[in-house]
Amino acid sequence: MTEILPSILAADFARLGEEIARVERGGASMLHLDVMDGHFVPNLTIGPSIVKAIRKITKATLDVHLMITDPDRYAPVFIEAGADCVSVHQETCRHLDGTLRMIQSEGARAGVVINPATPVSTLGEVLDLADYILVMSVNPGFGGQQFLPNSLGKARALDARRREMNLNFHIEIDGGITMDNVTDAVRAGCDWLVAGTAIFHSEDPAAAVRGMQHLAREATAIRA
Asked: How many domains, in total, are found in the chain?
């Protein structure tokens, strides 16, 4: 099933509980939380205390994206705070297989993220281990960026490998997702679509989620 994941980074943090309730009314069952440390990416966002606070007000699956230089140290902290899924960047992990196994041993699903300049081929040895692969369709660090179309080629390559190897990992895409490219992303093989500005900066976030879900369902039917 294709999922639309509202990205909390684009929400109004002064009314975060209300913002989450709005997208849940639209049918969102997963939320995407970006963690940035000011080192790996040039921005600072949330810590485990925010994840813990969000966990208390929602039953949605919390997908935590660690854009940090030391994921091995902090992944367990975010899992303890309530993360259900934790993704780490291929570019930051010295022993990627070990990091993924550690996340899984802590009780969360483990994902790998690749930046726009990182080729899919770097993931060849962990495709049978990862629960999901996140393709960045913008350079990470800030919301509201324009979608990079070449990311769809990466999604197609991952989908082809998934079929060839008979694997079950999910393909996630994050960055610049709007009503205009949801269909293309799903047809390329993406299962989880992260959208921030297009949802939380719209007049009706619940309607935006429903609209994206409708497009995703139609595209999934065509893909099948």
From this structure: 1
